[in-house]
Amino acid sequence: MSMRLSIAALVLFISLYALIFPVFEKQRYPVKMDQARELILPPFVVKVMSLEFRTVTADFLFARTSQYYGGRSYRPGTWSKSDYRWLYNNLIVATDLDPYFEDPYYFANAVFTWSANDYNNANSLLARGTAARTWDWQLPFYLGFNKFYFQHDNKGGADDLLIAAKRPGAWVSLPTLAARLYSNAGRTENAIDFLQIFSKNETNLKIKASYEIRLDALKRILYLERAVSRYKDKNGRLPRNIQALVRSGIINNIPEDPYGGKFYLNRDGSIKTTSKLALPANPEKK
Amino acid sequence: MKGILSLASITFKEGIRNRALFGIFIMALLAFALTMIMTSLFMRDIVRVAASLSLTTISFSGLLMIIFIGTSLLAKDIDKRTIYMVISRPLSRAEYCVGKFLGLSYLIGVSIAFLGIISSIPVIISGIGYDNPLAIFNWNVYFIAILFIAMKLLLIASVIIFWSAITSSSFISLILTIAVYIVGSTNEVVRGFLDQKMEGMNITPLMAGVIKFAYYVFPNLSAFDLKLQAANGIPVSAEYFVWTSVYGLVYISIMVSAAALAMTRREFP
């Protein structure tokens, strides 16, 4: 009798547990998200508290940060400045615990450039990684790219490329690229060169595909830019709009923007696109 | 000498038969398996993460083993009064301490060698099919780090012997050993903080004195922590290896001889 009773009680309580669990989880979720944001201690305190488990604490911090980002991101506009600040501080602590850990730098570069437009934070972490990981050519390469592409600092970018070029395994064309940056020539061509290197070195297929789209778009922009300069050579002035290139027979048709925007001619004669080289906010609804 | 060795082998056998050891090994094996799943949370430095998790598992299991089994092995003799059987034998009390320490060392050596060899499996597996040309993993540093984990555990074992010789309860020696472990793992960082003279921090001379005292008197366990170097493949110089080992051995000798001294002067109720 007492055995039956205890089995019945056990079954009852387990089903009760299964019943209340979703309710508990729902209540827990906002609190959990708040708590995930809460705790950033200064690096020194984390160093003391993690005892001898510093590398694993760095792993944990980084995993937590990237998971939190993954859980809330990829929808532009959902992230506030304080979100990015939190992210940055976490990465600072993680790289303080283990300055040789590649992932935080790589992640910071991806997040702070293309989605946060916060190049100073990206670059300060990349500079930290460049100093610690003396064998790694990719971090100074990213740093050089950010300076060239986002901050229009060709000289600074070229300096970093030369640092990268001296490291083992670096792409052989880096010195040439650096030389072209020093001479301020061909911005779109340089961007294509950079992206080709990015794409070649990327193992993550999803990111590689995104590089390929960007590369495709830039190649089409380059095609249009060359058409504009031919028009200018022929007629002595800039075309009024992009359609003038087709009408004058320099090109047959205007290529499509792989990001879904439309190419147009900027006043200074450069080619821009309405998509600003970014996928629409909701890529699922194509 | 023969007495010491037979006591050491008895201590080892007693330790290896302990059920807790079995549980700790099972936990470590599960953690190694989990390592391979955990690495999927990371992007590039997969082998580094696997190595860091594996070394942490070894170190943590070793700590559990030495702190729980180590304290029970020694204090049990005193708690349960079986020490009367030992000290009535032709074995001096100093020899008793040395024998116990050697037995614990034997236990540490065998367990860490076992865990160390198994720990390389998740590191190898996580590296398969993922080629990161920027990772510079180095097995030599990895095994040196494991050797240093064993050395750190030997140091803690000598601390356990010391506290067990002084105190009368296994619980107190357990707590004191954990305290030494915590101070030993942090004294270097705190001392470094003191030297940096951070702005906005007021450190009284008394506090500074306490920090300096802790730095010199407690063992510097951070010196034996090469997980960062091992995970990232940063080489360790031969001089560092030799001098840190010498430091550890001297510290161990001080602890064991202090324990032997305390033991010879001790009155058993």
Could you explain the architecture of this structure?
Chain A is mainly α. Chain A folds into three domains: 25-133; 134-185; 211-273. Chain A is built from twelve helices and two strands; from the N terminus they run ααααααααααααββ. In chain A, strands 1-2 form a two-stranded antiparallel ribbon. In chain A, strand 1 and strand 2 form a beta hairpin. Chain A is elongated and about 100 Å long. Chain A starts with a helix and ends in a 13-residue tail after the last strand. Mean pLDDT of chain A is 82; it is low at 281-286. With 269 residues, chain B is mostly helical. Chain B has one domain. Helices cover 78% and strands 0% of the residues of chain B. Chain B contains ten helices and no strands. Chain B has helices at 2-16, 19-38, 46-79, 83-87, 93-127, 139-166, 170-196, 205-217, 227-232, 238-264. In chain B, helix 6 (139-166) packs across helix 7. The mean pLDDT of chain B is 87. The chains are: A mainly alpha (286), B mainly alpha (269).
What would you say about this model in short?
Chain A has twelve helices and two strands. With about 290 residues, chain A is mainly α. Chain B starts with a helix and ends in a 5-residue tail after the last helix.
Task: Give the helix/strand layout.
The complex is a heterodimer of chains A (286) and B (269).
Chain A: H1 2-38, H2 43-49, H3 54-72, H4 81-97, H5 102-115, H6 119-132, H7 138-149, H8 154-165, H9 174-182, H10 187-201, H11 205-235, H12 243-247, E1 263-265, E2 271-273
Antiparallel strand pairs in A: 1-2
Helix pairs in contact in A: 3-4, 4-5, 4-6, 5-6, 5-7, 6-7, 7-8, 8-9, 10-11
Chain B: H1 2-16, H2 19-38, H3 46-79, H4 83-87, H5 93-127, H6 139-166, H7 170-196, H8 205-217, H9 227-232, H10 238-264
Biggest sheet of chain B, in brief?
A: none
Most extensive interface between two protein chains, with residue counts: A-B, 30 and 38 residues
Q: What sort of overall outline of chain A do the alpha carbons produce when their principal axes are compared?
A: elongated
What structural class do helix, strand and pairing data of chain A support? mainly alpha
Q: Estimate the helix proportion of chain A, in percent.
A: 55-70%
Rounded to an integer, what's the Rg of chain B over CA atoms?
20 Å
Helix count of chain B? 10
In which order are the strands of the major sheet of chain A placed? Answer: 1-2
> What is the end-to-end distance of chain B?
28 Å
- What structural class do you assign from the helix and strand content of chain B? mainly alpha
